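Box 4.2: Ligand-aware structure prediction
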Amino acid sequence: MQQCLRICGKQKTQGSIRINGAKNSAVAVLPAALLTEKTVKVENLPSITDIYRLTDILSVLGAKVSILSETSLGLDLSGVDSFCPPPGLVNQLRASYYLMGSLLGRFGRVDIPMPGGCDLGPRPIDQHIKGFSALGADVELEHGVMKLQARKLKGAHIYLDIVSVGATINIMLAAVLAEGKTIIENVAKEPEIVDVANFLNAMGARVRGAGTDVIRIQGVKELGSAEHIVIPDRIEAGTFMIAAAATGGEVLVKDVIPKHLDAVIAKLKEVGVGLDIGLDWVLVKESGPGCLLSSDVKTFPYPGFPTDLQPHMMVLLTRSQGTSLITENVFERRFRHIDELKKMGARIKLEGRSAMIEGGHELTGANLQAMDLRGGASFVIAALISEGETLIQGVEHIDRGYEKIEDRFASLGVRIERIGGI
Ligand code: UD1
C-alpha cells in the first residue's frame, strides 16, 4: 500500500517552528560542487528526498560523500570521473538539470536524460540550451538523452528570452570555468540564485550581479575548497505562515529572512492577517473566524508573489469573505490542485490562467491525490481547516520538498498521521 496522510479537520497550528535550508538553493549547490576537484562542506541542507537523490547521484559520479550531521555534508570531489549521471536517479527530480551546467563546466561534456520533477504543465529547457550553445557547446538529443559537448567553453553575451530560475543558474554554472567573460541578461533574481552565486564565489569563482537583472562572470581556471550555509527556505516559511493564517492559529516562524518573504507578507496583510516582523522571524497572529478579506493574487518571478505558494494561497482564500482571483503567470497550467480542492466543496472556477475563488464556504474532508509537491502541501492546509477526515495520497510528491511534514506540523500541535507503506 502506498503511503498516505490522514488528517482530521478543524485543527489549529500553534507554537513556533524553525525553518530549514532552502530546497531550491540546496538542489543547485550540490551539483555546483562538481565544479571543483577539492573538498566542500555544505550546511543547513534540508532532509528531503530531492537532496538524498542528488547525493546518490554525486556518489555514483565518483564524489566521496560524508554525512557530518543531519543537515550537513562533506564532499570530496577529487574522484569525480563520470559525465553520465544515472538515468534512474536523474528522472526522479527536476533539479537534476543542474548537472548539465556543472558537468559541462567540469568535463566539457555531459550525457543526461531529460529531468523529472513536478508536472506543472510544459517545462521546456530551451533557454538553458540556448545558453550552453552560446558558450560553445554542441547539443544533441538522442533517444531522450541530451548530449552536450564542447572542446572549450568560451564566455559569451546571452540574453534570456524568458526569466528562468533554472536557466539562470545552469548557465552560471557552465560559465564559471569558461574562458573569458560571460554576461547573462534578463536573468531571474530569486534569493536562491544569489545563494548559489555566493557558494561559487566562495570556491573562487568570479560571479557578479546575482540578484539583479544582469549577471557578469569572469571565467577562472579552477575552483578550490569552500564551506557554505544554505539560506532558509522562504517557501517552507510561507507554507507555515499561510497554514497559521488559514487555521487561525498563532505561529512564530523562526530563522527566516523576512525580506525574501516581502510579497507573501504584503499579501497576507492585505487579506487581514496580523503579522509582526523581526530580524529573522515572522509572527503570524491569531485571527478569528470570518475576518479574512478577499484579494487578487498574481504570481510572478521574484520579487513577485511566488508560484510555489499559489496553491496554499488558494486554500487560504477559500476562507475569505467574497470572491478572489488568482492569476498564474509563471506556469500557466499549474492548477491541477483545483479539481481536488473542489472535491472538498471549494468553489473555484478556472478560466485560462486565472482561478476565481468564491470564499466563505466550509470545506469538508475528502480523499485527495497529490500530483505535485506544492499542490500536495496545500492539501494539508485544506485538510486542517475542513470538517471531517481527509486522506492525501501521493505523499512522495510532498516528501520531495518538505522534511517529514507530519512531524513538522506536530511541532505546531497538529496531528497528521502517515499510514501505509513500509
Ligand atoms: C524553479 C523552481 C520551482 C519554481 C520555479 C519558478 C527549482 C528546482 N525549481 O523551477 O520551484 O516554481 O523556478 O519560480 O528551483 N521556461 C521556458 N524555457 C526554459 C526555462 C523555463 O520556457 O528554458 C519557462 C517555464 O516553462 C516557466 C517559466 O519559464 O513557464 C519559469 O520557469 P523557471 O523559472 O525556469 O522554473 P524552474 O527553474 O523549472
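In the box above, the bound molecule is uridine-diphosphate-N-acetylglucosamine. The domain at 23-229 is CATH 3.65.10.10 (UDP-n-acetylglucosamine1-carboxyvinyl-transferase; Chain).
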